[in-house]
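Let's practice the habit of predicting before peeking. Look at the sequence and jot down your guess about where helices and strands might fall. Then scroll down.
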Amino acid sequence: MIINLFKVFAPLTVSFFVGIAITPILTNYLYKHQLWKKKAGKVDPSGKETPIFNSLHKEKEVGTPRMGGIIIWASTIITVLAIFLISLIFPTDTTSKLNFLSRSQTWIPFATLILGSLVGLFDDWLEVTGNGNYVAGGLSFRTRLGIVATLGLLIASWFFFKLDMASVAIPFFGDLYLGILFIPFFIVVMIALFSSGVIDGLDGLAGGVMAIIFATYTGLAFFEHQIDLAALCAVITGGTLAFLWFNIPPARFYMSETGILGLTTTLTTVAFLTNSVLLLPIIAFPLFLTVVCNIIQIGSKKFFRKKVFLIAPIHHHFEAIGWPAYKVVMRYWVVSIITAIIGLIITLLSR
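Done guessing? Here is the structure:
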């Protein structure tokens, strides 16, 4: 028990301090090369201007670098590989037990984090250098969805054909067998979580919410005796907290796609590995709320020619009605903690 706790919390601490240590290097590079948007303002996926958002955030869009999510995945990679190499160079029972890079639990989410983050990094690079066919400079929203769907297809196929995973757990009712439909269901979940990435819109919002969610999955995986997976989630949590340290107002940099895309795709794999995907709307409630509000707004504008919210996603609506940004962020953190605890309790009671 003690070795398992150490295996989880020691890497979390290491990841946090690694993130803190590499931040000055990254910050210097980002500011030296002015890796931020060259033109203020934002457009929706259809290419239309968002005047309310622009009035609230236009001055913040220029002068603050993107790519801050590098802190999260870089600190995670460094920590994971460092512990793995130590177990190889100094092969003892202790170092072997502390290594959590395992084929059965962590290869897939770790690889997903790397792939998703690199795709996001490419998109961020296009955006800050002004290339690509998206009006803001990066990949088009449709292109990013296609990439996420393809990644989801590959991972879902591995789950289905290699791991024989074809069902999802319904709390208190047992497993629901999906058969081959497991693959499209997996893809839909991954796309939905990626779409929730627009929560990265206020200083400290995405970092705090993601840290809470991955901390929750650390506990969930630990209670389910998936210690390696718990350790990986803990490392991601530590890296996210290091990012958050520098992202609270005023933000030194934004998480952007290289953070959001990696975290949301990884969260999908973790949710399926812990067989808790149907509880994601509770455990990751702020992400679920973001997606639902966007769907409501788009549907209302298309079919009724009117908006439900002043601006979607809803955290910007709260800004538009007069809430200070820090109040929105802190209340999101509180709600995230409460709903994550509720989701964790339901999951554990239903097993």
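How did you do? Confidence is low (pLDDT under 50) at residues 132-136.
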